[in-house]
Amino acid sequence: MRVFVTGGTGLIGSAAVAELLGSGHSVLALARSDASAAAVRTAGAEPLRGGLADPDVLRAGAARADGVIHLAFSHDFSSSEAITAAVAEETAALAALGEELAGSDRPLVAVAGTPQTPGRPSTEADPLSTEGMMGGRSLAVAAVLELASRGVRSTAVRLPRTVHNQGRGGFAEVLAGTARQTGVSGYPGDGTQRWPAVHALDAAVLLRLALEQAPGGSSWHAVADEGDAVRDIAAVIGRRLGLPVESVPSQTYGPLGALLATDQPSSSADTRRALGWEPKQPRLLDDLANLQP
């Protein structure tokens, strides 16, 4: 299968490209810079120059492919305005991809976050929240799933708040970055809130399986760790960076503060059973041993 991938040079995207190539697929990857194009070629894929803001390029990439995996997203979380702009850009990009694929029965894999369900781990059957700053992203993914009625084998892989590799990635990296800036390995609230996690290499396998097997309109959970207590994550970061570990106000983390303070464990039992996915890589607390001081 020839697969068009957006975000193919990021933490998750580079793992996905390698997984696809290693499984016998060929990859056309969106590249917004010369450096990204060079990285795509080095990985063994073909670059397509352009960005998410160019719907003509996105449609051209989808037209040349047997399926699409969309991973690109701006990770500027510095302000609510930046997050809103990123969601709007992605919404338009997914609409362009969907229009090109309509009526073709080709797969389109989009990503979202795992939902929060008070009192229990969320499951694949739980709806995504359409409230708050990231609510627009849930609406965009819902629109992708509705493309199943228009001849697109569309599916959503829900990623946990921390997708990691070699101690980098996700909300754990936010904690580590803030710890370096403030001199304290902090956690919001009492730190008992739990975050799900998955290694990027395991997430890449699920993205491939969804592309190859998943029926249209389905959602899956790329969750290896059902929920690590945030204070345990902060404790490992503190040891690696040689910093004290303390509770800090949620405002320390800017627009993400309220989200970081929530308890949000998640299950992937249905995904493992239906698609035969089984995470094999190190868990988050073990992988954080690779965090650079």
UniProtKB/TrEMBL annotation:
GO terms for cellular component: cytoplasm. SUPFAM superfamilies: NAD(P)-binding Rossmann-fold domains (SSF51735). InterPro entries: Epimerase_deHydtase, NAD(P)-bd_dom_sf, NAD(P)-dependent_oxidoreduct. Residues 3-213 form the NAD-dependent epimerase/dehydratase domain. GO terms for molecular function: aldehyde dehydrogenase (NAD+) activity. Residues 110-130 are annotated as: Disordered. This is SDR family oxidoreductase. It comes from Streptomyces boncukensis.
